[in-house]
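Budget justification aside, the reviewers requested a transparent look at the raw inputs and outputs of the sequence design task funded under Objective 1. We therefore reproduce one unedited record. The lines immediately below are the structure tokens for a 396-residue chain.
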């Protein structure tokens, strides 16, 4: 593992180890020069390959032929910002163990360990790689959409910027509720060389991986109420898992009865979401150019809000989260033409007359039937009387 340059007489030691530390002496005739070699070894847990929320552990060891100094260690992340270890163990000065905070996907890159000592004078930088496979999405992201709109759900991966020792696999699942059965939409795997392969599991959704950007994209061209729920993308690396969820909440509006509003009639407008809202969100109906009396808010944990309308106008339903309007849907209440109102009034009057006529007919028929029944009873009694008092008269 060592070689000497015959011209410069430099000694080169390859694959340096802690045991190589010590005093090296170079002799040439009566000249003798000694050099003390101080060796550092820095290792990182899991070979520097992590998933989000995992905690790295750094081990710094030193060896020298002289008394080991007390080291001052400073860590810098890939953005050249100082990172404070959560704990630092140093019992023998030969071994330092540093535990860091939980990692995020953005922590990937080359880190620096700066080692200092006053006696002997040491000012050494040791670089090491931290690789974090993960998503740019948050752990649970909520996305709101209106019925019949186009929705795109995306998970941005960072594996294109990182060279992995091994490949990893992933899958995309969907379930409408937390307790419901998950439906697998997509299986994919990425090799150590970055090659991607995917297998679609469902024809109900349009799922694709955009390879240049390493983005898993789910497209719903015309979202429906039953498309709502939790969409979860999960990655598996070396029997460890990380996942990112997107909760899709769909909003729709409807009217009962549907259609134009006749004069003097009333209509109920309903605004509804597919799943319960967080405590800081609510639904609100409001009439355009209306007053405070034309505003109706949903209560906490309510999934719908209704408002009664008796006049034509434009109404908007807003989904508001912390005073921020996330999505809105409008419903235009149209007034029915006058002839429709007349038709409805005429139909109502005609219906009333018809009902009254049928009632009168039923009463008259009932009275006639009762009279016929009584007449039949009287005739039956008369025949019975004649039979009981029958006499025979002879002709003289």
């Amino acid at each position: 593992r060592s070689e000497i340059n015959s011209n410069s007489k430099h000694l080169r030691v390859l694959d340096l180890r802690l045991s190589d530390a010590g005093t090296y002496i170079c002799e040439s005739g009566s000249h003798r020069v000694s050099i003390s070699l101080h060796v550092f070894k820095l290792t990182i847990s899991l070979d520097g390959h992590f998933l989000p929320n995992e905690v790295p552990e750094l081990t710094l060891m030193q060896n020298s032929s002289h008394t080991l100094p007390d080291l001052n260690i400073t860590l810098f992340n890939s953005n050249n910002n100082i990172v404070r270890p959560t704990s630092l163990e140093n019992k023998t000065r030969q071994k330092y163990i540093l535990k860091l905070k939980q990692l995020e996907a953005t922590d990937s890159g080359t880190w620096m360990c700066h080692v200092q000592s006053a006696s002997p004078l040491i000012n050494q930088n040791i670089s090491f790689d931290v690789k974090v496979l993960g998503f740019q999405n948050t752990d649970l992201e909520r996305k709101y959409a209106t019925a019949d709109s186009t929705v795109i759900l995306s998970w941005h991966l960072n594996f294109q910027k990182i060279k992995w020792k091994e490949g990893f696999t992933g899958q995309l699942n969907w379930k409408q509720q937390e307790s419901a059965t998950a439906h697998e939409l997509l299986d994919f795997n990425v090799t150590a060389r970055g090659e991607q392969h995917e297998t679609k599991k469902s024809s109900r959704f349009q799922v694709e991986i955009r390879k240049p950007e390493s983005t898993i994209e789910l497209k719903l061209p015309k979202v429906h109420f039953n498309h709502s729920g939790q969409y979860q993308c999960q990655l598996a690396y070396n029997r460890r898992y990380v996942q990112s969820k997107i909760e899709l909440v769909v909003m729709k509006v409807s009217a009962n009865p549907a259609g134009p509003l006749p004069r003097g009639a009333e209509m109920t407008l309903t605004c509804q979401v597919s799943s319960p809202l967080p405590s800081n969100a609510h639904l609100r109906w409001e009439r355009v150019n209306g007053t405070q009396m034309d505003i109706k808010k949903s209560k906490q944990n309510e999934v719908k809000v209704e408002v009664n309308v008796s006049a034509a106008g434009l109404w908007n339903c807003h989904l508001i989260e912390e005073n921020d309007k996330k999505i809105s849907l409008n419903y235009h209440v149209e007034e029915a033409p006058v002839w429709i109102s007349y038709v409805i009034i005429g139909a109502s009057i005609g219906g009333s007359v018809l009902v009254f006529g049928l009632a009168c007919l039923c009463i008259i028929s009932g009275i006639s039937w009762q009279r016929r029944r009584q007449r039949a009873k009287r005739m039956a009694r008369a025949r019975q009387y004649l039979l009981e008092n029958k006499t025979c008269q002879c002709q003289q």
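The chain has one helix and 28 strands. The longest helix spans residues 338-388. Computational costs for records of this kind are itemized in the attached budget.
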